[in-house]
Amino acid sequence: MTKKPGFIGRLYSGLVLFFLYAPIFVLIVFSFNSTKSRSVWTGFSLQWYQQLVHDASVLNSFYITIVISLLAAIIATIAGTFAAVGFHNMHRKWRAPLMQVNNIPMVNADIITGVSLSLLFVFAMRLLPFEFGFGTLLIAHITFNIPYVILSILPKLRQLDSNLVDAAMDLGCTWMQAFTKVIVPEIMPGIINGLIIAFTLSIDDFVISYFTAGMKIMTLSMKIFSMTRRRVSPEINALSTILFVSVLILLIIINVRESRQEERARRAQRAVN
Length: 273
Hints:
It is a single chain. This protein is mostly helical. It has 11 helices and no strands. Helix 2 (47-53) packs across helix 11.
């Protein structure tokens, strides 16, 4: 039996949430302010959102962010799915150290990952004819997304009955047919979760993008940073609000999916018992 949190615990949790989200709430409120004031509310207006819609540089950054996020999420999900299956079928002696290597990019500081990838691309430019831009940014996003996809899919693989794959192959399926017709449908919830997480991380990333995008393209987070270097405009509030709401919606979808999956798993376990 778990104890309910006391008054001090609830107060502490409330203060933590307040200090985390109060600045974001202020930013959202003043994105609808009718003037450029950052401290005085003068009336409700959508003019800053209207200016964003007619700002070509912002629209271009938005287009680049969506394209990069979609491509990186899809490619990372495909690569992460095959990698997760490989880890799952690997002997425990080799799987444990390789999983630790897989976890390093997630606990590593983003600035270290960004600088490392930037140095790698600079070194590769001596051997191959390319430059910083869309390609390097896409590779960087795929790189830091794959570990999260792997961790999303591995729990579903552990729940998979290996006898299903053996039975499919005994009935004449090749390994690839067994993979597409047996394994993929069983682990599809994990694949979808990994895809959404990868897309969310790509939209939200700034540090790694800053070091790998070069001077020719700019994501939304980089655009916000460049706008703040001049002065804090209400357009920044509006753009930040759109970015925050987009990520929030995706996180809500992920949590709702996970809660529904856990509920279905509990129901199936009770039915078996």
